[in-house]
Specification:
535 residues, alpha/beta, TIM Barrel, Immunoglobulin-like, Serine Threonine Protein Phosphatase 5, Tetratricopeptide repeat, 3 domains, eight-stranded parallel beta barrel, six-stranded mixed sheet, 13 helices
Length: 535
Amino acid sequence: MSGARAAVAGLLALAAAWSQPASRERLAEPEPNWSPPGPHGLRVAAPVPLPALQTAAGASNPTIARWQASVARSPSNGFAWRQLADACVAAGLYAQAVEAYRKEAASYRAKGDVNAALIEEAKANGWDARAVLHRREVVHAVKRAGAKFEPPFGCYLGATVEVDPRVRGNYARFAELTGRSHAIYFDYCHYGQRFPREWAARAKAAGAALQIAWEPNNGLDRVRDDAYLQQFAQDAAAAGLPIFLRYACEMNGDWTAWSGNPARFIASWRTVAGVIRRLAPNVAMVWAPNALPEANIPSFYPGDEWVDWVGINFYAVHHHDNDPKRPALREDPSDQLAFVYRRYAERKPIMVCETAATHFCAACGKDVAEFGADKLSQLYSALPRRWPRVKAVCWYDIDNLSNAGARVERRSNNFSLTDHATILNTYRHQVAGGYWLSRVVTDGTQAEAVRYVALAAGAALSGKVRLSAWVRAWHDRPTVVWRVDGVAQAASRQRPYEAEWDLAKAKPGPHALEALVVVDGQVAARETVKVTVGG
């Protein structure tokens, strides 16, 4: 049998053995803690008292006027735009500050200074405020061709738990702690080590797939089509479970032994991918840069025909580089997806191969669990609504403070998921819904699936509609007030700000559905969508 025919036969066999239970899986979601219905029949999850709204603060001043005149005379003057932005922040004029920071960033991009532009764009995002309303839809009997192991809808849950002392690779225990079975477990393997058969057997017994970070730590010169590579591929095929192979990730960073030469990297990638595709049909190749640096990422891309999934690694830290002088203020971790997503998501499914949020920061010596919980919530609530082509997300469940396997400079944060109740309970809440998948789909079939669709103006609604909001603000935990026709229904501070609207209790005809994003009593942003009830 030819290599191509063997690969097809192997995939068909894997699908037959693997996907039948998943194709029958039905959605079972916990019921939120709802508020009583409001006057128009709308209720929210995790309600809080309606906030008292105050008149917006902030006013222009001579400093702002001076810098406004400066940028009017010289629109490409990045320094002047920054001074204007900083003055607007000091005056509480955050929308104007956002615009000025983005103008400054644009001036740097025009000059080719991408890193400076990214810094100012992050400042703009940090002071920005907005809301996008979504409705939840359940789709049935889905069959869709996509990339290898790509689910038509939803996102695989993944994690690394091999060194978590409360789990130690016990996947049933991890499912008990988090309230969910996970579709993918990941770990690291040096290029030159044998295929991890025992680990694969444990994952297969749990109905999970593997994500292997395969790292050529001795450089790319030793990577060739030889007996070692072929044996690794054959052992992977014999393991009989879906495998996501993340070969030589973070190639865009100078901290890896395989960075620095894009052409050499691409040749090595194609060698590995060629052998894997010839001998291991159950393996999907995942190309995964780090989120930063950004400018050189495209130069390492091997080409669409050599990549099954595009991945990305990023973390939410309380201080950058363990430096007390560099606090990570007003940063939304989901922003780190923007560059890779916009460049590749139309062509490839996206995997967040490694991510986590710290809950103890060595730089300041403090427990920062509330910070970690907020960052976790920001990411997991954004993925279904802002980045729906992210089809897998894997949490790095390791305390790097005590992890002997971490490089010394990285022993500065505790990313463990299970050793702090605040983090664990937040994770359980965020991954409880039917959007999150516990088993890899190998044949493109789902019995039922959940998707979130931005609520469009003029939408006709009936029955009971489940709503939610993707929200950005300069405060990590803003309050969202849901209103119908200007009448406040209820408020929540828990992402993704879910609401349920029983339209049988609303008057048929046009209505204005609105979400107010409230910070310290002031409306930071609002989103209004005019909809029609009934008809």
